[in-house]
Write a structure and sequence with these properties.
Blueprint (H helix, E strand, L loop, with lengths): L3 H64 L9 E2 L32 E2 L6 H9 L3 E5 L5 H11 L5 E5 L7 E5 L2 E5 L5 H10 L23
Parallel strand pairs: 2-4, 3-4
Antiparallel strand pairs: 1-6, 3-5, 5-6
Length: 218
C-alpha cells in the first residue's frame, strides 16, 4: 500500500502536469490571436482606404457639377465686340437672327408675337436683357404652344416667327445664340433661365416694355 506521503506526491505531480498543460493551451491561444490580429488590421485598413477613395470621388463629382454654370449648354455660339450704336436705317446682320450690333433707338416690347418683328427693334430688346426665341413659320401648332409656354410670365422674353431660320427654333441673347431642332429641347428653358437679364446684358435693369409693338400675350 502507498504511504500517505507518496499519495500526496502523486497528487502534486498530477496537479503540476495539469497546470503545465493548461498553461500551454493558454499560450497557444494567445499566439493564435496575435497571428490573426495583423490580418484583421490589414482587412480593415484596406476597407477604410476604399471607403475614403469612394467618398473622395463622389465629392469631386459633386463639386465639379456644382461649379458648372447653368448656361454652359452644348451648341451655344458666342459673339463679341458687337456695336451698340443707334441707327435709323435697316441693318444687315452677320447672324441669322441677329444677336447684337447697331439697332433702332426703340426696343421691341417683350411678349409673344404671331407675326415677325423687325431685327433692329429686337436687337435693342436683347441689349435690355431680353432672350429672343424665333421659330420657322411652318413650325406645327403644338410646338409653337410649347415655345409660348416658355415665354409666358417672363418680362424679358420675346417670341416671334422668323422666316429663313437655319433651324426650326433659334434662341438668342446679346452675344449668345443656340439653334435647336425641337421646341421640346430642354436647353431652351435652361437658356432662358441663364440669359434672361443675365450677366451678358449690356444694359441690366432696362425695361422691355414702353417701346414698340403690342404682343398677343405676355
Amino acid at each position: 500500500m502507498k504511504s500517505a506521503a507518496q499519495d500526496r506526491r502523486t497528487r502534486k505531480a498530477k496537479y503540476a502536469a495539469q497546470q503545465e498543460r493548461e498553461a500551454k493551451r493558454t499560450s497557444g491561444r494567445a499566439r493564435q490571436r496575435r497571428k490573426g490580429t495583423p490580418s484583421r488590421r490589414r482587412y480593415w485598413g484596406w476597407a477604410v482606404i476604399v471607403l475614403v477613395g469612394v467618398l473622395l470621388v463622389i465629392g469631386i463629382v459633386v463639386f465639379v457639377q456644382s461649379q458648372a454654370p447653368v448656361g454652359d449648354l452644348q451648341g451655344i455660339v458666342t459673339y463679341s465686340n458687337l456695336s451698340r450704336n443707334h441707327v435709323n436705317t435697316k441693318v444687315t446682320y452677320p447672324q441669322n437672327p441677329p444677336v447684337g450690333g447697331a439697332h433702332s433707338s426703340v426696343w421691341q416690347n417683350c411678349g409673344i408675337y404671331s407675326q415677325p418683328v423687325a431685327n433692329e427693334n429686337g436687337v435693342h430688346s436683347l441689349e435690355h436683357g431680353a432672350v429672343w426665341i424665333t421659330y420657322q413659320p411652318s413650325l406645327d401648332a403644338s410646338s409653337v404652344e410649347q415655345l409660348r409656354s416658355l415665354v409666358r410670365g417672363h418680362d424679358h422674353a420675346l417670341l416671334s416667327p422668323y422666316p429663313g431660320l437655319p433651324s426650326p427654333v433659334v434662341i438668342s441673347a446679346w452675344g449668345m445664340q443656340l439653334q435647336v431642332n425641337s421646341a421640346s429641347d430642354p436647353r431652351l428653358a435652361q437658356f432662358v433661365s441663364k440669359y434672361e437679364n443675365g450677366s451678358q446684358t449690356p444694359e441690366p435693369g432696362a425695361l422691355c416694355s414702353g417701346g414698340l409693338g403690342t404682343p398677343d400675350e405676355h
